[in-house]
Specification:
The chain is α+β, with helices and mostly antiparallel strands. It contains four helices and four strands.
């Protein structure tokens, strides 16, 4: 027996509605999947950016640590080289001041100190191990006059002595001093000497 037209109409309507619902469900499903895919891609891209930032930060810290280590190593090498040079300087000057050449060195240092003090009269103080006499003062006065045109009256200070190689000049009232001893001279030259040693160390390592 054939189905009635009414029944056929109901079936067709149901099929059409089912197809419509199915099509809508598929569209919504595709939309949800596309949105999920977009979110996943966005999350992956953000994670890649964050990972890149973290890796860059790690690399930067590593580079800074390497630079800090290299700088510290360079400073240690420079300090060790400077200490070795200064120890050798001490040895050489120790030998110098026990030799006949000490006289000429002290004459020059007395003249330098007189120029640094900048007064018309000065007392010369020296280490008791040094042989400083009036003849040396006259040589220093003559040297200073020849080099600078200054005329300074120098006298030995037999009441006050310094400790360490070199000399110290004082005004007659003991209010102004100019120290030209070895350790003070080395401190004055320390910056230049460290620069020279640093440059030499860098050349040796390159």
């Amino acid at each position: 027996m054939s189905e009635s037209p009414i029944y056929e109409g109901i079936l067709q309507t149901a099929r059409a509605e089912a197809d419509k619902l199915l099509s809508k469900a598929r569209a919504e499903s595709d939309e949800i999947l596309e949105e999920a895919r977009h979110k996943a891609e966005k999350a992956c891209e953000e994670e890649r950016r964050n990972t890149t930032i973290r890796l860059d930060a790690i690399r930067s810290r590593e580079e800074n640590a390497v630079r800090s280590y290299e700088r510290a190593r360079e400073l240690r090498n420079n300090d060790a080289a400077y200490d070795a040079v200064m120890a050798r300087v001490d040895e050489l000057f120790e030998a110098l001041f026990h030799s006949p050449d000490a006289r000429g060195v002290l004459v020059q240092w007395i003249a330098e100190a007189a120029y640094g003090l900048g007064m018309g009269e000065a007392k010369v103080q020296y280490d008791i191990r040094e042989s400083v006499d009036d003849a040396m003062l006259e040589e220093a006065r003559a040297l200073l006059a020849h080099k600078t045109g200054m005329n300074v009256a120098l006298v030995l200070d037999k009441e006050h002595h310094v400790s360490g190689w070199g000399v110290q000049l004082a005004s007659l009232d003991d209010k102004v001093y100019y120290n030209n001893q070895l350790d003070v001279r080395m401190r004055r030259m320390a910056k230049d000497m460290k620069k020279i040693i640093q440059e030499s160390t860098c050349k040796a390592e390159s």
